[in-house]
Amino acid sequence: MRTSSLNSATVAVMHAQLAAFRDKFGRDRQPDDPVLFDPDSDVPTKIPPSMIRRQLEEACKRAGLDDQAVDRVLRELGVTF
After folding, report:
1. Which of 4-8, 16-20, 53-57 has the highest mean pLDDT?
2. Residues forming beta bridges with residue 37, ordered by sequence position
3. Is pLDDT at 32 greater than 80 in this prediction?
4. Distance, CA of 4 to CA of 57 (rounded, Å)
């Protein structure tokens, strides 16, 4: 089994995400449930890539980054859609 250490900011984000899951679906997340879920769905559903991209675009715009920032961020993270 692989383990890794998480910094306190990451732990706080994960706790907030798990609380959001509980608030949305009225139960704790199960191993097969997505951590990042579609907030518009009535059942636990993995967040669609288009929603992730749109949220990244909005965050980059708020941060004053150029239009290519999202592609650079995704490439740096190794994320492909």
Report:
1. 16-20
2. 46
3. yes
4. 29
Angle between helices 69-77 and 49-62 (to 10 degrees): 120
Cβ–Cβ < 8 Å for 24, 37? yes
Q: Which residue has the tokens 């910094």?
A: 7
Which residue in this structure is represented by tokens 């608030």? 23
Question: Which tens digits make up the pLDDT trace of 52-74?
Answer: 888 888 998 999 998 788 888 88
Q: What is the distance, to the nearest Å, from the Cα of residue 45 to the centroid of all Cα atoms in its chain?
A: 12
Return d(Cα 42, Cα 75) in angstroms, integer.
Answer: 31
pLDDT bin (cut points 50, 70, 90) of residue 18 is: very high
Question: What 8-state DSSP symbol labels residue 28?
Answer: P
Helix locations, the chain, DSSP H: 8-25, 49-62, 69-77
